[in-house]
Amino acid sequence: MTTAETETPEDLHDFIRTAVRDDLDAGRMPTVVTRFPPEPNGYLHIGHAKSICLNFGIAQELGGRCHLRFDDTNPAKEEEEYIEAIKTDVAWLGFDWGEHLHHASDNFDQLYRWAEHLIKAGDAYVDDQSAEEIRENRGTLTEPGRASPFRERGPEENLALFRGMRAGDFADAARVLRAKIDMGSGNMNLRDPVLYRILRATHPRTGDDWCIYPTYDFAHGQSDAIEGVTHSLCTLEFEDHRPLYEWLLDHLPVPSRPRQIEFARLNLTHTVLSKRRLVELVAGGHVAGWDDPRLPTLAGLRRRGFPPEAIRDFTARIGVAKADSTVDMAFLEHCVRERLNQVADRHMAVLDPLKVVIENYPKGEREALVAINNPGDESAGTHQVPFGRELYIERADFMEDPPKKFFRLAPGREVRLRYAYFITCQEVVKDADGEVVELRCSYDPTTRGGNAPDGRKVKATLHWVSAADAIDGEVRLYDHLFARPDPGAGDDWLDHLNPESLIVLEGCKLEPALGRMAPGTTVQFERQGYFSADRDSSPALPVFNRTMGLRDGWAKIQAKQS
Ligand code: ATP
Ligand code: MG
User: Fold this and answer.
1) How many Å lie between the centroid of ligand 1 and the Cα of residue 31?
2) What mean pLDDT comes out for the span 144-162?
3) Which of 102, 120, 68 is nearest to 253 (CA)?
4) What does the pLDDT read at residue 6?
5) Which end is more exposed in the chain, N or C (fewer Cβ atoms within 10 Å of the end residue's Cβ)?
6) Which ligand is nearest to the CA of 325?
7) Overall average pLDDT of the 109-120 stretch
8) What residue's CA is closest to ligand 1, atom 8?
9) Which atom number of ligand 1 is nearest to the Cα of residue 44?
10) Quick one: pLDDT at residue 233?
11) What is the C-alpha to C-alpha distance for residues 426 and 368, in angstroms, rounded to an integer?
């Protein structure tokens, strides 16, 4: 795992950037062209962000361009909703594909002509075997595959059959087009891979124009070549596909010759980054939709309050390598905390309120106190918080019978109210059950602003909200989606969902400024953490998502390691 300090893009060095620079220096291409090629069958997640930042980042750094290409070759699983969500997420991350929004489906005509080209050259054939037979005859890693009885069909017969496939003469899956490569190859991908299949499904872009669709392998490299992509960067599972990628480029009259380079995908603790599993979580109702703030989707992280700058910073700091590894969620959170510490305004909110009455404060009087928006950034300015005779403090900030190390409010003890006054607890009011319901306190008017002119000190500073001005709000506390670091590869992964991943607090007391936050605004609640105004907020009831607490788990992990 990388723990390097924040790097500026110019500082980034990795084997892919080196390879691209070498190609440019050697004059193998005038400019670098990359692409980010999502399949629109789900929302993007933080793993995709690694690929997006790599592809768009390299293009930016080296004066090239990066395309957004939808790999939309499987209409059975693809939806318009996903296409729009993916565009939103890439733009939100801060990247611009300009005019280069492409779709594999833009190339369906060309791909079809190239399939005929392979057939005419004797490099592809129509196979009538069922999917099951094809699988059985493919062999294993230790046994070669068996040739299909249809493998030696002549080009003319293949052409007629393939045209029949296209014309809709055959049932779904009745036949496929396969490349004729090598059934004995040690690489399973070269054992006559399927190039086209019959599938009657309405495509989001081409509608019902086609009843045959190219496979990923046949569409991907050729789309790269058509778009003039110079470097096709993909994750390691495509390493074994590279010989096929190159075989197809060798056997087709493609206009350019992209180079495929593989890198390790991002894995994160306490979550899952497989689209299949994310679909299952959403469809199964285990979370409240694709933008549930517990999900590692970019939509979920955005709603949770993660800034795009922090995600970009995270991907730069973990780097790109050839070996698989798992990054600790605490490191992502560390990057987010660093960013929010710089940019989030501070406000006061009481999540579990306990009433305080300041008996010597004049009844009916109110005053406005000045609160600093960001102690690390003077230019962030200040805002006013109202103060009055009745306040709320956090229930956990008071103990009637405090143990030794508890320095906050207790009977007879003096503490500071942030930006306000020193107060002393004079009396504890309880209900019939003996529960503390109110504190009677006194304040020292000479301590306005939070300092005593006589120089006396207090051991604690509490946050508070004026009762007469407080706005009621709902706060949603999130924790890891999976309590254990690795949900596991087995079928029982859903059993490991964290039952406490969401705790909803109602009746929280917010300072008035928090009632006016636009959804998506992330602030610090003093002493508690970062919170982001949710889109479920209404003028009557603001809703905040806890982005994360203030305690840095990553710093702790690092301290333990060293
Ligand atoms: P899944 O395997 O979960 O279905 P995918 O890789 O098929 O996801 P795509 O839409 O095909 O999803 O991915 C688009 C691009 O993002 C691909 O180039 C893929 O390699 C890359 N990518 C996907 N997941 C990760 C990850 N965890 N880390 C880095 N890159 C990723
Ligand atoms: Mg994929």
Assistant:
1) 25
2) 98
3) 120
4) 45
5) C
6) 1
7) 98
8) 275
9) 10
10) 98
11) 25
- The residue whose CA has the least distance to atom 2 of ligand 1 is 274
Q: Which of 16, 45, 48 to mutate to test the pocket of ligand 1 (most atoms within 8 A of CB)?
A: 48
Residue 45 alpha carbon to ligand 2 centre in Å: 13
| Residue with token string 């596991």 | 488
Percentage of the residues of the chain whose pLDDT score is greater than 90: 93
Q: Which tens digit of pLDDT belongs to each residue from 11-25?
A: 788 999 999 999 999
User: Token pair of 88, please?
Assistant: 């939103």
CA of 137 to the centre of ligand 2 (A): 25
Q: Which domains does the chain have, with CATH numbers?
A: 9-268 (3.40.50.620), 275-304+473-561 (2.40.240.10), 346-469 (2.40.240.10)
pLDDT tens digit sequence for 195-229: 999 999 999 999 999 999 999 999 999 999 999 99
What's the pLDDT at 7?
44
The pick from 93, 95, 265 for probing ligand 1's pocket by mutation, whose C-beta has the most ligand atoms within 8 angstroms, reads 265
- Phi, psi at residue 315, to the nearest 5°? -65, -35
Do 234 and 262 touch, CB atoms closer than 8 A?
Answer: yes
Its pTM stands at 0.94
Measured from CB, residues less than 6 Å from any atom of ligand 1 are 37-39, 47-48, 50-51, 234-235, 265-266, 273-276
Q: Give the span between the Cα atoms of 354 and 347, in whole angstroms.
A: 18
The kind and range of the H/E element at 53 are helix 46-61
Enter the tokens of residue 278.
């994310």
